[in-house]
Amino acid sequence: MAKYQDLLAQKAALEEQIEVARQAELQAVIQQVRQIVQDYGLSAEDLSLQPKRGKKGSAKAPVAPKYQDPKTGATWSGRGRAPAWIGKNRARFLIA
């Protein structure tokens, strides 16, 4: 059975070989892509390589209210913590 230190040395050697092989293949792939882009006259926009600008994620649209307090006119969408005025019988506050 191999010792821990021997295995670590093998791992380091393999990682080095992997990086060398990756760099060699990467150069070939880059050359291929450049040739294809040149042959077809493609741009970064054609390939959707331009970074997107603006906020990350999407802003949530406000939810329409489902319940309304007839005394104060306060509304609640039905999401989140229920207001104190809603009580247990929500049906009577439902907006038609």
Write the layout of secondary structure elements.
Layout: H1 4-40, E1 67-68, E2 75-76
Antiparallel strand pairs: 1-2
In words, what does this structure look like?
The protein has a two-stranded antiparallel sheet with strand order 1-2. It has 2 domains: 1-49; 56-96, no CATH class. The chain contains 1 helix and 2 strands; from the N terminus they run αββ. By secondary structure, the protein is mostly helical. The chain has one helix spanning 4-40; strands at 67-68, 75-76. Its main location: cytoplasm. InterPro entries: H-NS_C_dom. It is found in: Cytoplasm, Nucleoid.
- Domain count: the total is 2
Placed side by side, the strands forming the largest sheet appear as 1-2
- The general outline is elongated
Q: How many H/I helical runs?
A: 1
Reading the helices and strands in chain order gives HEE
**Overall SS class:** mainly alpha
Global mean pLDDT: 87
Helix content: 25-40%
Number of strands: 2
Q: Please compute the radius of gyration using only Cα atoms.
A: 31 Å
Terminal CA distance reads 76 Å
| Beta-strand content | under 5%
Oligomer classification: single chain
Stretches with pLDDT under 50, minimum 5 residues: none
Largest sheet: 2 strands, antiparallel
Can you summarize this structure?
The chain is mainly alpha-helical and 96 residues long.
Please describe the structure with a list of short key phrases separated by commas or semicolons.
elongated, mainly alpha, 39% helix, H-NS histone family protein, 96 residues, H-NS_C_dom, two-stranded antiparallel ribbon
